[in-house]
Model the fold of this input.
Amino acid sequence: MFVEFFNELLNGKLIGFKCLDCGTVMCPPKSTCDNCKGRNLEKIELSGYGRVTSYTVTYVAPMGYEKEAPYVVALVELDEGPWIIGRLDVDAEKAESENLVGKRVKVYGKEFASELFYPNKEKRVVPMFEIVE
Done:
C-alpha cells in the first residue's frame, strides 16, 4: 500500500483509508484502524488540503540527506482529520522569519534521489506541502 501511496502522491493524489466500522480516516494508509483497531477498511482519496500545525527547519540533516539541507519539515492536519508529516516547500529563511503555523497547504509528491537507508533504491518520494493561502 505504501508504494501506491507514494506513486499517487507523484500523480497529485493523496490516498488513505476510512474505517467502515467507526468512520476514522487514516493517512498514510495502515493495515488496522487507529481508533478501533478494526481491519474493515476502504481506500479513499483525500482532498490533500490542510493546515500547518508545527514545523522546524533542519540545518543538520541525517546521513544521506546532507545535500538537501536546509529544509523545512512540517506537521499538517488534513481537512479530513489525519495528521501527516512532510516537507514545507518554502525557503529556510522564510520559515525562520515568518510564522507559518495555521497556513493552508496542499500536499504533493516530489521525487528525490534514493539513499542508503531508504527501502526503495530506485526512487524516494517525499510528501511536500505548498502554501496556498
